[in-house]
Amino acid sequence: MTTNDPILKVENLKMYFPIKRGVIQRTVGYVHAVDDISFEVRKGETLGLVGESGCGKTTTGRTILQLYKATEGHVFFEGKDLTKLRGEELRLMRRRIQMIFQDPYASLNPRMTVEQIVGEPLVVHGLARGNEIRERVKQLLTMVGLNPAYVDRYPHEFSGGQRQRIGVARAISLKPDLIVCDEPISALDVSIQAQVVNLLEDLQKELGLTYVFIAHDLSMVRHISTRVIVMYLGVLVELADRKALYDNPLHPYTIGLLSAVPIPDPFVEEKRERIILEGDVPSPINPPSGCHFRTRCPLAQQLCADQRPEWKEVEPDHFVACHYWYNSKTLKRR
Predict the structure, then answer these.
(1) What's the Cα-to-Cα distance from 250 to each of 181, 188, 247, rounded to whole Å?
(2) Correct CATH for 6-96+176-333 of 3.40.50.2300, 1.25.40.10, 3.40.1110.10, 3.40.50.300
(3) Can you give the pTM of this predicted structure?
(4) What integer is the mean pLDDT of 134-163?
């Protein structure tokens, strides 16, 4: 497999959560958390996944790992459809796909020591036993920048950044090929965020990892990602190389998001004109017809309500879902 070959391929993925009411728990509707998305992740890259809170980023990551069973669609990992796997087959495949969770205060069992937390995957998959586990955990702690003497400590004895490093150590314990990073820095102090991101980059080079990096911090995503996907209300609106996306965004939503990112130069910041997205994000229970973004889009026409825009490659390796993306440069000049 070369660098450009997809290690992960998501096809027409949907994840709807039923809304139940009444004594007999009758289904009265669905939350359209992920609504028919398709993309690929290439081996060795970091694919950033950004969007507003509630747009379906975390659900996408959890569905990739089969923590949620997809309503429809397929998730292919090196050609194997994870949505079709069950039992032992899925358990063995999970050795190669791991996750770093968002909240380091909630993702570590407070009643377990660091040795038990980081060593648990080794025990579950039968990769080590007895004193081997302790030695392997010490190696992993050293790799993530923690003192190996901390193996007998409990989570409450660590800071948030240290806890997240323990979560990273647990994720790499099985030597996976792909790691889904679910906003791994959002719960940390700004001073600690860069340290964790640098750690992830170092581990990627050392272990040959591939990342799906979920975040809402556009500046950090630009720093760490190879390519970036922009998500809105359960659908993908744009995907491109990070330079192409930040220098030449084509979707009105992407343009609006990037205009909200502060620029360090005060003279440039003062002169540029921000694009304010009007209105609120619609409910995922009843998303708008056609284009989900049309209720807040300055370019919206009747076609946007009648027809869902096609997800298409409009420039080399630059995908967008918009009927009027070619007018986006006019939008940026306003």
Answers:
(1) 26, 32, 10
(2) 3.40.50.300
(3) 0.90
(4) 93
